[in-house]
Amino acid sequence: MEKESDLEKPAQLRAVIVGAGIAGLMAAHAFERAGIDYILLEKHEELTPQLGGGIALCPGTLRILSQLGMLERVLKLGMPICPQVQIYDEGEKRVDAPEMSLYKEWLGSEFWFIRRTDLLRELHAHLGHGQRVMLGKTVKRVQQSGCGVRVECDDGSVHGGDFVLGTDGTHSVVREAIWKQGREEEGTAVSRDESGKSIPIYFHFHLV
């Protein structure tokens, strides 16, 4: 557990990333390239739990992987998505059937199909500072102070930084902390009803 003195604003910019999924690990790679210190907190005891299945990587995501120097390795783990994908509204009415092969012409790359666990494993394996990924850290509270942010975990550990990046999924603790602060601050435009809004999306595959 970090001491209270560790919670003081560090000389180097420091991020606390919550959630070691695809977004969290890619953010860690970006921070390393930018020279930003970070710590990554993940609630699961293992980095690649058997959650989710295959995912489709969009051309924009492939460009980011290229910028991170990881594209060739990731492409070897998957395959191009089928030429045509049919999308249904809540599993009943077909709303679109795009020709996936056209995306390479339009955007410079195809959609790429890969197992989620394989991508997570690859992202973690090539971090320059993999020891900064801490497993079994369930965040229960996020607080903001004059010297940065304070992130508390249910095991009693406390982690400080200049800012927190919430990549902890649908039921995000970080998102709820932001809504809570917004509701409490005077003059806020955030209502209680707005904080619970979500947008249902129905696809037969997962785009990243």
How does this model look, in words?
This protein is of the alpha/beta class and 208 residues long. It is built from 6 helices and 12 strands. The strands form 4 sheets. The chain has a 4-stranded parallel beta sheet, with helices on both faces. Strands 3-7-4 form a 3-stranded antiparallel beta sheet. A 3-stranded antiparallel beta sheet has the order 9-10-11. Helix 1 (22-34) packs parallel to helix 5. The longest helix has 13 residues, at 22-34. The chain is globular and about 50 Å long. Its cofactor is FAD. Keywords: FAD, Flavoprotein, Membrane, Monooxygenase, Oxidoreductase, Transmembrane, Transmembrane helix. GO terms for molecular function: FAD binding; monooxygenase activity. InterPro entries: FAD-bd, FAD/NAD-bd_sf, FAD_mOase_fung.
Features:
208 residues; alpha/beta; FAD/NAD(P)-binding domain; 12 strands; disordered C terminus
Strand content: 25-35%
Q: What spatial order of strands do you see in the largest sheet?
A: 8-2-1-12
- What's the number of extended β-strand segments? 12
**Which structural class fits the helix and strand makeup?**
alpha/beta
How many H/I helical runs?
6
Along the chain, the helix and strand elements come as EHEEHHEEEHEHEEEEEH
Distance between the termini: 34 Å
The CATH architecture: 3-Layer(bba) Sandwich
What's the CATH H-level homologous superfamily? FAD/NAD(P)-binding domain
How many structural domains in the coordinates? 1
Unreliably modeled segments: 199-206
Strand count, sense and barrel status of the largest sheet are:
4 strands, parallel
Amount of helix: 25-40%
Radius of gyration over C-alpha positions, nearest whole angstrom: 19 Å
